Amino acid sequence: MSDATNESRPNPRKVREGVVVSDKMNSTLVVAVNERVSHARYGKTVQRTKKLYVHDEKNEAKVGDKVRVQETRPLSKLKRWRLTEVVERAR
Length: 91
Known about the structure:
91 residues; mainly beta; 5-stranded mixed barrel; 1 helix; 7% helix
């Protein structure tokens, strides 16, 4: 599915950027996504980390890589995201 079809959707798919934490599984990555949220009561900005299970068909991303992922249909019990691109390789 290309980006053109994504824009024509009534509810476009979510896109997140994060760092690959694990690539031990076959064609699956674990990506840590940080988000900055204002605390409900105190207003201080806090960082929340969410781990996403991502489908990586070609096993191209490695631990430490910064990647862009896109929401997709459920692929397994935990996988609901797929790898769009590797933004930055780990050094």
